[in-house]
Design brief:
This is Sulfurtransferase complex subunit TusC. Belongs to the DsrF/TusC family. Helices cover 24% and strands 20% of the residues. By secondary structure, it is of the alpha/beta class. It starts with a strand and ends with a strand.
Length: 123
């Protein structure tokens, strides 16, 4: 089985990148690829609680993360340094419907994961 890692590097609202990354993850999983998600840089902001994108005129695609368990997308990785950079910790994160445990990884573990997959797509 081929493995794909979808990397969320940009913030959740204001651009279509997050929605496109989520759509790609679900589409790839529906074709029996093993999909992992990596949240780093601004991408960790996807995991913040109580987001109200309607207030800035954006659609709430983050609620779509709840569909990922139906596609067997169970590997969710979070960059430890990005959490530090944004003053976040694991307790302040909302899984937004993600199944499984959020794995907090350092840069070496992230590198190892990226080397273990067949394709990496960065948004």
């Amino acid at each position: 089985m081929k493995k794909l890692c979808v990397v969320f590097r940009r913030g959740p609202h204001g651009t279509a990148h997050g929605r496109e990354a989520l759509d790609l993850a679900m589409l790839a999983a529906s074709f029996d690829l093993e999909v992992s998600l990596l949240f780093c840089d601004e991408g960790v902001l996807h995991l913040l609680q109580d987001q109200n994108p309607e207030h800035i005129g954006c659609r709430d695609y983050i609620s779509t993360f709840k569909a990922l368990p139906f596609y067997d997308v169970e590997i969710q990785l979070v960059c430890k340094q990005s959490l530090v950079d944004y003053g976040l910790n694991k307790n302040g994160l909302n899984k937004n419907g993600l199944s499984g445990e959020l794995q907090i990884l350092d840069s070496e573990a992230i590198t190892a994961h990226l080397q273990s997959v067949d394709e990496v797509v960065v948004y």
